[in-house]
Specification:
The chain has one helix at 2-22; strands spanning 27-39, 42-52. The protein is of the alpha+beta class.
Amino acid sequence: YSSLMTELRDTALTRMIKHAEGSGADAVINVHFDVNVIALGAVEVCSYGTAVKLL
């Protein structure tokens, strides 16, 4: 279970970083992860953060 959670978190973070870079951001701050067990063997991960452009 913990290896699955690590993989899900890493995947979500990688996607967030790629999206921010594609938008011209320099960093992502205030990152949050929400994890919900939907059903036996099914997990949902919602991640969000603020993309910022450094001056």
